[in-house]
Design brief:
- The structure is a single chain.
- It contains no helices and 11 strands.
- The protein is 0% helix and 50% strand.
- The strands form 2 sheets. Strands 2, 4, 5, 6, 9, 10 and 11 form a 7-stranded mixed β-sheet that branches.
- It is mainly β.
Length: 127
């Protein structure tokens, strides 16, 4: 299993942007898909975005489509989540996930499909 460490969270005003990073240790990173999920207080973990091991196949949750972009740099063992046009509903702890049991959509959308998780990074959007 990979060890995942997120960074880049913080406080931002509505309409602003943030870029999250997820650095993975372990040699399996470049061979598997990665995903971002988020959890807001009182809500279930929500799928945000996922990317396949080649970086060409990307899927997004409906609430972030057109505003967020997922990418990866396999040479750096790092996945990214560029977030733009942020609104208060995007306030959450953001988690990266790796080591999926099954590759591809819709499996990327299920938290139970992933064996490795980061500790999370807080994103707070103020109005």
């Amino acid at each position: 299993q990979a060890q995942l460490v997120e960074s880049g969270g913080g406080l931002v005003q509505a309409g602003g942007s943030l870029k999250l990073s997820c650095v993975a240790s372990g040699r399996t990173f470049i061979t598997k898909g990665m995903a971002w999920f988020r959890r807001s207080p009182g809500k279930d973990r929500e799928f945000v975005a996922a990317i396949n091991r080649y970086g060409l196949g990307r899927v997004y949750g409906d609430s972030v489509k057109g505003r967020f972009t997922i990418s990866r740099d396999n040479a750096k063992n790092t996945a990214y989540l560029q977030m733009t046009s942020l609104n208060v509903e995007d306030t959450a702890v953001y988690y990266c996930a790796g080591d999926p049991s099954i590759e591809g959509d819709p499996h990327y959308r299920r938290p139970s499909n992933f064996d490795s998780w980061g500790q999370g990074t807080q994103v707070t959007v103020s109005s």
